Amino acid sequence: MMAKIHEINKFREQRHVFKDRFEAGGLLTMMLQAEYPHMNEMIVLAIPAGGVPVGIKIKEGLDLAFDLIIVRKLKIPGNPEAGFGAMAMDGTVFLNERLLARLHLSDSEIEDEKRRVSRELEKRNADFRQSRPFPALGGKRVILVDDGLASGFTMLASIDMVRKAGASEIIVAVPTAPQSSIDLISAVVDKIYCPNIRTTSFFAVAEAYKHWYDLNAGEVIELLAT
Fold it and tell me: How many whole angstroms from its chain centre is CA 220?
């Protein structure tokens, strides 16, 4: 399976394409609406924190069911900005084996980080979702949303969790991504909507936005309450 990729050609390789995450979500809404005029059995699952405003805009624009899928990167010891993989709320783990081969982390270091992230996932699930049961996805078309892809491993963990839950179709909707991450996930999803794809050697999600900042937990909770 290779995903059908929807992008906007005039935005390829461009920076500062979107005013903010809400504007990006609005553009994705229009792209999705053109392909899915009938939205039966669809649900939006947003990845917090940055995916929440994007996902809310999509679910409001398309009048879809909405929930969160909690996923966190496994951080490299001593370098909290970088990750060697990701873990989803059901315990699904995806490791960047190529990177791990260069890092030479011990098994105990990897397992310690998995345990740390597992605790973090439980806390975020309680804070953002009140630990309620995950929605039944059997036979449903799922739109996975984030504010952008970096390495793509958090999205891979999300995809695997959703597939194991029985989704009939998996659609990824992200405002921006490097071509390498699009290639990584395209073999395991049905469709990808990404208006801003870049092929530069250095990629940062933030560069797609004119106004960018990291959302904190309080802001996510406030968004979910509106």
Answer: 15
Q: What is the pLDDT of residues 197-225, one digit of tens each?
A: 999 888 999 999 999 999 999 999 999 99
Question: What pTM, to 2 d.p., does this model score?
Answer: 0.94
Question: Are the C-beta atoms of residues 173 and 145 closer than 8 Å to each other?
Answer: yes
Q: Are residues 155 and 45 in the same domain?
A: yes
Residue 132 falls within a domain, yes or no?
no
- Quote the number of domains for the chain: 2
Greatest Cα pair distance, the chain, in angstroms, is 50
Task: Domain of residue 14: give its range.
Answer: 4-70+137-225
pLDDT 10s digits, 75-121: 998 887 778 999 999 998 989 888 898 888 889 999 999 999 999 99
* Residue 115 resides in a domain: yes
